[in-house]
Amino acid sequence: MKVVIIEDEFYAAEALEKMLHKLRPDISVIQKISGVEEGIAYFDTHPEPDLVFSDIQLSDGLAFEIYKKHPIVCPVVFTTAFDQYAIQAFELNSINYILKPIKETDLHRALLKYAAHYEQLPINFEKLRRMLHQPTYKTRFIGKIGQNIQVVPVEDIAFFMSEEGTTFLLTAQGKRLIVDFTLEQLEQILDPQIFFRLNRQLLIHIQSIKKVEPYFKGRLLISLHPEMEKKPVVSQEKARVFKEWLG
């Protein structure tokens, strides 16, 4: 799919191109345009792409001036930090209006909308959906023991634990290493199908669970491998979610 990006901020255009390639490797950004005059000149002399991603406030005016001089037929996704142009945008051939900073989820939805309305892929649409949104999770960590470091694959990790502001990684073999992440950060970069946040101090790998027992007041008592000095407890509020995760 051929794409043109209209954006006067160099790093914003680069970031958008990188995000597009991540979501759809078949995208080819054939031109980046930074101003109104450049845009008019380009569309006067080049065929239209399949899709345009267009900022609105450019260095030499509003992008709408490009489309007044050269009314393009291909769909446009507007990307802007301002919401006051939404009505003008949808009067044109706009299929989406994304507010900056651009989030991958918003871009994903815009590409799905384009695919649904402009690509003839009725049989492969689910395949396309999966291709557009395949989150990547961290597969290995660097842990520290004193001055030494060790690379630990995710499959060798039993759990992460937080103690007095420090996060530790425990391997399935019982080795304890320091990692430079908080548990909150780890929740964002680990596969939620494999790791679960039991409580404020503990984030566990599903294969580290040895036994789950009913406990007082609807709570659950968890036995892990390697064993902890004190077995962790899942609260009554979290017990249902934990059991759904297990199943």
Overview of the molecule:
By secondary structure, the protein is of the alpha/beta class. It is 31% helix and 33% strand. It contains 8 helices and 17 strands. The radius of gyration is 25 Å and the shape is elongated.
Strand order of the largest sheet: 2-1-3-6-7
The secondary-structure element order is EHEHEEEHEHEHHEEEEEHEEEEEH
Structural class: alpha/beta
Mean pLDDT: 88
Distance between the termini: 40 Å
CATH T-level topology of the largest domain: Rossmann fold
Q: Any idea of the CATH class of the largest domain?
A: Alpha Beta
Briefly, what is this?
The protein is of the alpha/beta class.
Task: List key phrases describing it.
31% helix; Rossmann fold; 5-stranded parallel sheet; 2 domains; alpha/beta; 247 residues; OB fold (Dihydrolipoamide Acetyltransferase, E2P)
Topology at a glance:
Elements: E1 2-6, H1 10-23, E2 28-33, H2 36-45, E3 51-54, E4 57-58, E5 61-62, H3 64-69, E6 76-80, H4 86-91, E7 94-99, H5 104-118, H6 125-132, E8 140-145, E9 148-153, E10 157-163, E11 166-171, E12 176-179, H7 183-189, E13 195-199, E14 202-205, E15 209-214, E16 220-224, E17 233-234, H8 236-246
Parallel strand pairs: 1-2, 1-3, 3-6, 6-7
Antiparallel strand pairs: 4-5, 8-9, 10-11, 10-14, 11-12, 13-14, 15-16, 16-17
Helix pairs in contact: 5-6
